[in-house]
Amino acid sequence: MGTIVWLSSELMFFAALFAMFFTIRSVTIGQDGQHAWPGAELDLPLSAFNTTILVLSSVTCQMGVFKAEAGKVGRDGSIFNVARWGLREWYVLTFLMGAYFVGGQIFEYYNLVTHDGLTLSSSAYGSVFYMTTGFHGLHVTGGLIAFLFVLGRTYAAKRWTHEQATSAIVVSYYWHFVDVVWIGLFGVIYLLDL
Length: 194
Known about the structure:
Blueprint: H1 2-27, H2 44-69, H3 87-116, H4 124-156, H5 162-191
């Protein structure tokens, strides 16, 4: 219950970021009288691929939850036999997908700074873009740390209990939340002004 209440407060935080985005977008007018928005050449194919990876990581996370609920912590077959995977394998895959997403976001930031000169202080768009996507990236990084804690608990615990399964489920709530928020951010930032 506490996690759901906390995620509700996080939802309000991201709602404020969305409000900031739309407010600044509505008042940013270029010299020709048109919107000077987005103000940078965003890499839609890269971001769409990153989004796909992040959304699929929710699927792998949920597969881990199913294994946690069944009490299956580790695999009982070949690493290549996905049907025999346990929580650990699914959460490691989810971690790697999330880390790839963060790496893709950093790569896009690098390109925007070096090729377009878009920085946090270069324009209103830069401020809004980096604040919204950056805070989301920090939340993804927090989720990655939570996955490491859950994975560590699977090795530290003498036996798998309901409490350990609950911690895996709570981390999945957070991860699904982060994914849903990104879908909204992707739609607003990358698709709205196409």
